Amino acid sequence: MASSSTSRISLLLLVSFLLLVNSRASSVSDLDEELAFLAAEESKEQQSHIGHEEHDQYRDFENYDDLEEQGGGGGGGEYHHGGYEGEEEPLPTVDEKDVAVLTKDNFTEFVRNNSFAMVEFYAPWCGACQALAPEYAAAATELKGVAALAKIDATEEGDLAQKYEIQGFPTVFLFVDGVMRKTYEGERTKDGIVTWLKKKASPSIHNITTKEEAERVLSAEPKVVLGFLNSLVGSESEELAAASRLEDGLSFYQTASPDIAKLFDIETQVKRPALVLLKKEDEKLARFDGNFTKTAIAEFVSANKVPLVINFTREGASLIFENSVKNQLILFAKANESEKHLPTLREVAKSFKGKFVFVYVQMDNEDYGEAVSGFFGVTGTAPKVLVYTGNEDMRKFILDGELTVKNIKTLAEDFLADKLKPFYKSDPLPENNDGDVKIIVGDNFDEIVLDESKDVLLEIYAPWCGYCQSFEPIYNKLGKYLKGIDSLVVAKMDGTSNEHPRAKADGFPTILFFPGGNKSFDPITVDVDRTVVELYKFLKKHASIPFKLEKPATPEPVISTKKADEKIEGDSGKDEL
């Protein structure tokens, strides 16, 4: 009896095992069959374009502006894609003994331990980086004792490159006392680097000991910082000098004379050390009331050196985007309405120094008004105020109400208290969205992309992007093949006119995959060859809901009227994939 039971169990185990093996084999067989079908379809498509291949190969590169776009940002870096026929010329040997090599493990220690540290983010394949290498190495040798120079391979140290928003190569930063302060945009030569760094590292504080000197400074300087100290040497002077190295674009002075201090609107009986910042602008004077340390002084100067409200112009852009304060409070208004609303914004700005950069965008300016308004999703002609969190997360919060001091202050306070719901750009909802590739806009993103019952593949594109245009027919074919699969959505979104916090594009096109039942986590970036077959393989691997390709039905063979039992000539008798 026991033997019979054991045999029965063994038989059941054997059957289960065979079923499992058969199931897996069937699954593998199905995938192979589906991939074979897709490959055959692609092969047919390619065959139909024989004779046009050479023309098509170069079509992607007709728009050289797309290549320039990739090299933008981060100090005007450039991508160089060199093409050589035959053997590549070997790169010259460069003596880089005085250039430190940084990784994530020694980066922080290096910039902290060197008062002035220049750091280059590079890529090994970048031609511009290779051209800079000997100049950079020679500068490092000459600057020993003044500043330390280092380099980081951004292709290996991706986390550091992402932290500092590296978008092109080479990108070169100056760190002062461990803090990134400036992007180097000067000449890429030894002399250019040496001259620039020596100027940054030299003492930038000057003594004023006579009334004549004071009057000359007040007359000639548009902005000036004056420290009224107990002595022109010692710890107070050292803190002021250290703060001066952290700030560009204005001069620092010190005096120990009460009579000279009075010329700068400092009361003679004030407790020393005292500090003021004078500007030839609407707000002429700012008084420092913090601890007399380099950090506190630098923060005060950074918050007060810019106008209360910065006009968005080419000249003013650096004051906005290179400011250590990233949150921006922006007024959009036409020129003829600015006089009404700018005084209101300036009044609000006085209460939020160091918290926001206040900006005015002239909506009807022909050079930039329409472009900037479009970037922020501001439509119509009515004045608007919004808060912008900067380029890191790009959230926007629009004031819904009249542009009064009280309402704008409330907007700022609610933002700082994290009480506001962000605004995201969106195109109008599509009237018909039954195509092979679903159209996603800001307002239907949650409904379609974040539907937990669907696996969603999303392409984020730009209409002007040449690579996106080349990829479009491939993506459309993928959508056509997968349209009949209810659990799977192939979709696309214009990333220039639509936004969503879950759809962040590193460039165009960006392809993201949102698995069903898992939408609370970040999407998977699709990093495979942009072909129908490779994208299909990715989906089969990552889809949370298994699916099978629905191939079109094979047409019934045509039977000859002559011989009913003969198939048409050339028919193999097998289903064609």
TrEMBL record:
Database matches in InterPro entries: Prot_disulphide_isomerase, Thioredoxin-like_sf, Thioredoxin_CS, Thioredoxin_domain
Enzyme Commission no: 5.3.4.1
Protein's UniProt keywords contain Heme: no
Gene3D superfamilies, per the entry: Glutaredoxin (3.40.30.10)
A Pfam family reported for this protein in Swiss-Prot or TrEMBL: Thioredoxin_6
SUPFAM superfamilies noted in UniProt: Thioredoxin-like (SSF52833)
Signal peptide: 1-25
Catalytic activity: Catalyzes the rearrangement of -S-S- bonds in proteins
Enzyme class: isomerase
Origin superkingdom: Eukaryota
Protein name: protein disulfide-isomerase
